[in-house]
Amino acid sequence: MKVHVADHPLISHKLTVLRDKQTNSPTFRQLVEELVTLLAYEATREVHTRSVEIETPVTAMLGTKLTDPKPVVVPILRAGLGMLEGMVRLIPTAEVGFLGMVRDEKTLKASTYANRLPEDLSGRQCFILDPMLATGGTLIMAIEYLIARGATDITAICILSAPEGIAALEKAFAHVDVPIRLVTGALDQKLNEHGYIVPGLGDAGDRLYGVV
Ligand code: URA
């Protein structure tokens, strides 16, 4: 698995405001969208393209366009929904599938409660949106879903990641041929005893949408 930790002063600045517990929900939502657009720029570096002939007002030239079928973007509900706008702003023609997953706060085990994905993902590039890579349980399950449906290229975009989550992903997919990439805004120190990322930003879903 390839891991890319974005290293850009704008990302560090936005992340600092995002982490601050004084930051309110509207600002938090806005910052998540902006951060995803910046991370998506890196995450789509290997997006599939083809050459096309076009004519500019001056001359003919060979340009580049995204290939069909277009990539599939999969936000993990609930918190991943806050990342969707920022992603489709960069790839407006992407298809969007949804996975609803929740982790049990005691056992930290993930389970799926909703699934709306194309049946056949053969040959598709997939981008999973999940803000917090903590234990890795949710992301591992999501990646397994996509591989089972034939996805051949998977990139996860996470705002923050914990070393434990990255290690779990690396172990889970060590012998899988499908290329898997992780693009993250920062690699934090660790998980605490409640499975929260430290220093982290708290519960991403609650900070985006309130405690419901
Ligand atoms: N999920 C969150 O929202 N925050 C964490 O710190 C870990 C998992």
From TrEMBL:
Lineage, highest ranks first: unclassified sequences, metagenomes, ecological metagenomes
UniProt domain Phosphoribosyltransferase: residue ranges: 5-210
Required cofactor names: Mg(2+)
Record PANTHER family: ADENINE PHOSPHORIBOSYLTRANSFERASE, URACIL PHOSPHORIBOSYLTRANSFERASE, CHLOROPLASTIC
Native organism: freshwater metagenome
BP terms from Gene Ontology: UMP salvage; uracil salvage
Keyword presence, GTP-binding: yes
Protein's name in the database: uracil phosphoribosyltransferase
Keywords associated with the record: Allosteric enzyme, Glycosyltransferase, GTP-binding, Magnesium, Nucleotide-binding, Transferase
Pfam families: UPRTase (PF14681)
Protein family: Belongs to the UPRTase family.
Top EC class of this enzyme: transferase
This protein's GO CC annotations: cytoplasm
